[in-house]
Design a protein that fits this description.
Blueprint: E1 5-13, E2 19-33, E3 38-53, E4 62-68, H1 70-79, H2 87-95, H3 98-111, H4 118-125, H5 136-147, H6 160-165, H7 169-188
Antiparallel strand pairs: 1-2, 2-3, 3-4
Helix pairs in contact: 2-5, 2-7, 3-7, 5-7
Amino acid sequence: KEKPYLGMVGLARLRTGQAVHMKYGVEVEITLDDNTDVMTFKAGRRIRIEEINNSQQGEWTEAKVQFLVSEEEEDAEVTTPDNDYLSVARAVRKGRELNELVPRWIDLAKQNERQANQITTLLKDLEGPIPPCEEPSERAFWVGALINPLPGMGVALEIRPSLLSAKTSEERIDIAVEGIKGSIGHMDGTQKLF
């Protein structure tokens, strides 16, 4: 049975009202349960749009994309001249803070579920625990998926577009830590977000 894939990117609306494609997104796997006719979309590899096919007409956009691999990006951060080779080490160190923040968030989120067992289901959908500190980008993306699930919970600011657009592992970890801290403050009442 074929499993179709598509690339999904967000649209940004300019002040003029014009919609423009964001440059980063994810590959999406589409599955259909034949028994229930429920369609499921699962995010996969990250992509960067290289070139948009402007001649194509229809309700979708065709583009050339490059698949992004966190490990390769982090290796380049360390080995490419003119890069800050310590940024990955700082990201690993900063990412350790998530060891305490994630369990706290999960506890609070279980108290704020919009439907029964929402967090238990979410954790199953994430397919495993948070990645290790030594994989700071993957760790940050995991936190983004945790605090910004679909359907949404309304307990965190949206960080996924910022994570996808971030250029370094340190930027990604900073976004994830700030996002989960903000969500915790919102849920425990110490700092409402909205």
